[in-house]
């Protein structure tokens, strides 16, 4: 066994990308459109006596998702399934209950890419082409297989399709609990059709709903938005501290929160509203939330600012687009959007889960 001195890892790097956008433009930021597996959505609204229904409804209305228990991955190659739910509308699927750095995982992106992330032994059993993990190419403990379910060549009877099907049915029987969302291409189609399809094939299907955490704080000092705040980490640190203020987990956290001082410049406001929804949100849902919050902020003359934070699943195989993700560094794949009253918004994107460990 290697001695601890050989594996002398440096602390993980925390890297954030910050950009400024015109709030009045209706173009949806790419950072939202390319982030598929969203787990937590939270809002902070200072100087708000109430949170309007239009904002909460954009998060909670028709936001059900489904859990399929013990799903055989080979089922995802079914032509009927691909034609009905992958090629039409947007399907987002993610394995749950697995640790991405220690075990196998799967996901389907809205663009129709099936991602199979495998530990080395199972990858060799599967016998399909795949790339060594970005995070451990030197020692090669994990490989990632990507299959475009929508490709013209991926059809029953064609060589590529039959090879993948044979591998998943005969060489490696992968089984996962998964959650999924299907957004139909037509409002006349029911999103629950995908759940009915799996139920008819004998799977245990559960309806899942988002969980809400809400609180209101009175007489709170909040940071003021200034022209230079977009590069000020203190502002975003305050957002994080306020988010955990009502959910203190231990004495160490409690002491830190209770002694934390709001960065300057700041102002005292009568109320600050905070709400957090936890569950599974598709990119389409995130886009809807962004558009609704943006329009709300533009309509409020006296609102100092509003923050929208979206946190991805810590154990998803990818974070943004098809960029591989790891939990081992810290698992953070999130973004925060700060809307301010002068028609600007700042987007802060965490890239730390895409960084390799550094060896001292």
TrEMBL record:
<dbReference type="Pfam" id="PF08584">
    <property type="entry name" value="Ribonuc_P_40"/>
</dbReference>
<dbReference type="InterPro" id="IPR013893">
    <property type="entry name" value="RNase_P_Rpp40"/>
</dbReference>
<protein>
    <submittedName>
        <fullName>Ribonuclease P protein subunit p40-like</fullName>
    </submittedName>
</protein>
């Amino acid at each position: 066994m290697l001695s601890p001195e050989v594996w002398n890892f440096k602390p993980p790097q925390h890297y954030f990308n910050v950009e400024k956008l015109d709030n009045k433009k209706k173009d949806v930021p790419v950072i939202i459109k390319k982030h598929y597996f969203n787990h937590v959505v939270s809002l902070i609204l200072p100087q708000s006596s109430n949170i309007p229904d239009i904002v909460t409804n954009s998060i909670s209305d028709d936001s059900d998702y489904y859990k399929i228990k013990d799903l055989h991955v080979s089922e995802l190659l079914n032509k009927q399934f691909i034609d009905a739910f992958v090629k039409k509308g947007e399907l987002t699927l993610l394995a749950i209950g697995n640790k991405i750095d220690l075990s196998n995982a799967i996901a389907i992106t809205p663009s129709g890419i099936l991602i199979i992330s495998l530990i080395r032994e199972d990858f060799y059993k599967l016998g399909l082409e795949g790339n060594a993990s970005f995070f451990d190419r030197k020692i090669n403990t994990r490989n990632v297989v990507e299959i475009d379910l929508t490709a013209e060549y991926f059809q029953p009877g064609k060589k590529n399709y039959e090879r993948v099907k044979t591998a998943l049915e005969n060489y490696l029987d992968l089984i996962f609990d998964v959650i999924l969302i299907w957004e139909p291409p037509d409002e006349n189609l029911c999103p629950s059709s995908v759940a009915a399809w799996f139920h008819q094939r004998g799977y245990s299907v559960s309806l899942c709903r988002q969980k809400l955490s809400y609180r209101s704080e009175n007489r709170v000092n909040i940071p003021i938005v200034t022209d230079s705040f977009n590069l000020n980490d203190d502002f975003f640190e305050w957002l994080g501290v306020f988010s955990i203020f009502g959910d203190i987990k231990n004495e160490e956290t409690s002491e830190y929160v209770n002694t934390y001082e709001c960065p300057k410049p700041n102002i005292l406001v009568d109320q600050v509203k905070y709400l957090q929804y936890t569950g599974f949100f598709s990119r389409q849902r995130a886009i809807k939330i962004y558009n609704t919050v943006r329009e709300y902020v533009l309509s409020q003359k006296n609102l100092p600012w509003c923050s929208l934070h979206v946190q991805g699943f810590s154990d998803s195989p990818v974070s943004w687009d098809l960029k591989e993700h790891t939990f081992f560094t810290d698992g953070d794949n999130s973004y925060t959007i700060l809307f301010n009253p002068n028609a600007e918004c700042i987007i802060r994107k965490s890239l730390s889960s895409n960084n390799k460990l550094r060896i001292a």
